[in-house]
Amino acid sequence: MLGGIERVLPRGVNFDISKQHLARDQHSEAHALTVDRSSAHRRAGNPASSGTHRMSSTDADTQGSQHGVARTARSRTEEQRQQDREKIQKYRALEDQVRKQIADNNYGPDTFQLTSKLLRLNPEYYTIWNARRRCLISGSLSRPSAGSSPSKESPSTSATDTPTASSAASLPSSSTETPQPPSPRTVGKSGTTPDQAKDADLIRAELSFTVPLLMEFPKCYWIWNYRLWILDRATERLDMSKARRIWEEELGLVSKMLTKDRRNFHAWGYRRHVVAQLESPVLNGQSLVEPEFEYTTRKIHDDLSNFSAWHNRSQLIARLLDERKADDDTRKAFLDKELDLVRDALNVGPEDQSLWYYHQFLVLNLADRAGSRQVAPNLTVDQRKSYIDREIADIKDLLEDYDDIKWIYEALIEYAVALNHLTGQAADSEYQTDLATWLTKLQELDPKRNGRWSDLQKELGLS
């Protein structure tokens, strides 16, 4: 009955648990451990508290070898261990309360309050987020009216509320529920129904509830996921102007999050989703491509190493030029400006992989005449060749001061090969000599990938 609910432990606790204690609820534990927890989601937060992973005292006292930090042992007193055991007991008592409520199909206010307590301790416990959704759907939120737009997803089918293997097993199937007919709506002087006013207050309260969690755990996927689900309820239940205002406030929040951590890829992905919603017809949206492109410019000037900002920029360019109705000369001028921008950055920090990513995007865009997202689609082959030759020459100049950076050699090889494909001609003897030299240097600088470089040598006929 409880097999679909994983047992997880809170953050910030060092674990010294006896085998007998670990064996509690063995059946549900075994079932939960069969569920794929998704390693990407585990990496988003503290591995110690994600999924069903349980730590021993040894795990807790020796953790720390992440992001180049050496793993060091930490001694703990018996008093500290006892304090941790007491924290675990309190946490599990709270967890058992929630599990019992769910098992009894009780999604009332008491269960809702219990989920608040548990999620404050462990926001990565995704089954409890699903239980919280069920509490809202079952009673707190009004039922959507019969005339709801079909473009607005129902709570049980929202894209951000896809049931997982464990949550689907623990929550009753929506197909067995009989929806109650909506009560007649009375409209006040402001044009807002009582149901809408109640829903608006609840939606804002839920968004407020998650803000402190998001500030403390900015890379916890499940908090971002839940906020999107709540925002979708705003689109579904509130009139357009009120829903749009909430989404606009969310864009402001994610901007603040990206000020705090400029390279949080969760926040960047979330921002793209929020912008897409604000541009949608459902919210009477208009294109935000210009301000978003300018936003990437500011973020890049703040931090040249902001890979996410460079990536976002690359995704906006084709649409930006289309919406500007840019002619060939304008597109060429735009390309020149972007190449100047990233070239100047590379002269400052050639060891930065994020800069090479964007430079590669521009150069390979030139080399791919058939691509659907061309920056300057009407350039001739000779013009494209001239561009790539110039970029290769500039990169060669970098070798005078930076001959030990592998990204330089990778770029030179990739662009030389792309140039050959563009022109349909084999590399001349000078390029062949250069390619052999660059590959030899790569084998020296990046020996872990010697197999790759050897294969490339054979592919290019250099071995």
From TrEMBL:
Gene Ontology CC annotations of this record: Rab-protein geranylgeranyltransferase complex
Pfam families cross-referenced by the UniProt entry: PPTA (PF01239)
Superkingdom of the source species: Eukaryota
Keyword presence, Repeat: yes
Classification via SUPFAM superfamilies: Protein prenylyltransferase (SSF48439)
Enzyme class, broadest EC rank: transferase
Single GO MF annotation: Rab geranylgeranyltransferase activity
Region (Disordered): 22-92, 141-198
Low complexity biased stretches: 141-178
Biased composition (Polar residues): 47-66
Enzyme Commission numbers on file: 2.5.1.60
Catalytic activities: geranylgeranyl diphosphate + L-cysteinyl-[protein] = S-geranylgeranyl-L-cysteinyl-[protein] + diphosphate
Assigned keywords, A-Z: Prenyltransferase, Repeat, Transferase
Biased composition (Basic and acidic residues): 75-92
Matches recorded under InterPro entries: Prenyl_trans_a
PROSITE patterns, A to Z: PFTA (PS51147)
Keyword Transferase applies: yes
GO biological process: prenylation
Similarity-based family: Belongs to the protein prenyltransferase subunit alpha family.
PANTHER family: GERANYLGERANYL TRANSFERASE TYPE-2 SUBUNIT ALPHA, PROTEIN FARNESYLTRANSFERASE ALPHA SUBUNIT/RAB GERANYLGERANYL TRANSFERASE ALPHA SUBUNIT
Task performed by this protein: Catalyzes the transfer of a geranyl-geranyl moiety from geranyl-geranyl pyrophosphate to cysteines occuring in specific C-terminal amino acid sequences.
Protein name according to UniProt: Geranylgeranyl transferase type-2 subunit alpha
UniProt source species: Fusarium albosuccineum
Lineage: Eukaryota, Fungi, Dikarya, Ascomycota, Pezizomycotina
